[in-house]
């Protein structure tokens, strides 16, 4: 330590000025003599007060251009500075007892802090454990409630589905019954229509036959009356009446075939030779007028 401080002091120290009044100008410019200078006039320090190699420091300063007194003064100055620094350092230092006391107090405080931390950790652990147990119990209760709700919803949905299926089946049955009723009604209506059609055909046929028969009777009655009025005396008239009777027979034979027989009877009468005494007969049949020449 003393050697390092001496080396730092030697590096920072500047060489003496050449304009020193204690030395002449020729001596300051001339190199130093090889013989050692006389010892300094300063009193030597007490043995044991120096904290570095003073001789080595003095020799080093002399090799750097210092004189012996200057080197000795620098050495003493450095020694005083080092002594003052050591004294200040020792004043700032604490004793081993203080260190032991501080160490004991630190360890006691550390042990107390560790105990408090342990108690706080145990308390927090217990509270966290109880909180976790409560949360787990709440979760179990919530899960059970959720399962119950889900089972209830499933049962409700199944009941609704079954009710809907039964309603659909009932609606299908009602629709089938209605379709069957409509089918039966259509069948009855078709049979009624067929019956009505057959009855209408029968009535129409009967009406036609009745009208034809009536027309034939009217024609026969008219022809009979005409023949009775005109007389049957002469031979020519008898021949004509024969032709007329033949015509009347033709009319009687064609009475069931319609109104064409009347036309033939008229033609027979005309051929019978009674054109001068012809008469016109009008017959109303269902709002239609029919004319006959007699």
From TrEMBL:
Q: Which UniProt keywords apply?
A: Coiled coil, Membrane, Mitochondrion, Transmembrane, Transmembrane helix
Q: Does the keyword Oxidoreductase apply?
A: no
Segment forming the signal sequence: none
Q: Which GO terms describe its cellular component?
A: membrane; mitochondrion
Give the Pro residues compositional bias ranges: 33-46
Task: State the superkingdom.
Answer: Eukaryota
Q: What is its main location?
A: membrane
Q: Where is the composition biased (Gly residues)?
A: 246-265
Q: Annotated region Disordered: where?
A: 1-48, 233-278
Transmembrane segment boundaries: 208-226
Q: Where is the composition biased (Low complexity)?
A: 1-32, 233-245
Task: Identify the InterPro entries for this entry.
Answer: CCDC90-like (IPR024461)
Where does this protein reside within or beyond the cell?
A: Membrane; Mitochondrion
Q: What is this protein called?
A: DUF1640-domain-containing protein
Q: What is the lineage of its organism?
A: Eukaryota, Fungi, Fungi incertae sedis, Blastocladiomycota, Blastocladiomycetes
């Amino acid at each position: 330590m003393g050697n390092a401080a001496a080396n730092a002091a030697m590096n920072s120290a500047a060489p003496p000025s050449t304009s020193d009044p204690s030395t002449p100008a020729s001596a300051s410019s001339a190199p130093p003599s090889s013989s050692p200078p006389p010892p300094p006039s300063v009193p030597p320090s007490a043995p044991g007060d120096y904290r570095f190699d003073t001789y080595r420091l003095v020799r080093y300063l002399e090799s750097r251009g210092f004189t012996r007194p200057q080197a000795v003064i620098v050495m003493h100055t450095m020694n005083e500075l080092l002594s003052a620094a050591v004294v200040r350092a020792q004043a700032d230092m604490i004793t081993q007892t203080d260190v032991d006391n501080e160490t004991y107090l630190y360890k006691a405080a550390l042990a107390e802090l560790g105990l408090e931390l342990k108690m706080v950790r145990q308390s927090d652990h217990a509270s966290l454990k109880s909180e976790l147990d409560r949360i787990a119990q709440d979760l179990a209760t919530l899960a059970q409630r959720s399962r119950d709700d889900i089972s209830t919803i499933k049962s409700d949905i199944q009941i609704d589905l079954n009710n809907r299926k039964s309603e659909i089946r009932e609606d299908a049955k009602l629709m089938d019954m209605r379709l069957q009723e409509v089918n039966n009604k259509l069948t009855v209506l078709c049979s009624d229509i067929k019956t009505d059609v057959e009855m209408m055909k029968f009535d129409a046929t009967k009406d036609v036959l009745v009208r034809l028969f009536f027309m034939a009777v009217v024609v026969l009655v008219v022809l009979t009356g005409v023949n009775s009025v005109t007389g049957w005396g002469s031979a020519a008239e008898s021949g004509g009446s024969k032709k007329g009777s033949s015509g009347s027979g033709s009319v009687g034979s064609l009475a069931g075939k319609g109104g064409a027989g009347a036309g033939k009877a008229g033609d027979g009468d005309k051929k019978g030779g009674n054109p001068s005494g012809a008469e016109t007969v009008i017959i109303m049949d269902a709002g239609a007028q029919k004319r006959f020449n007699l």
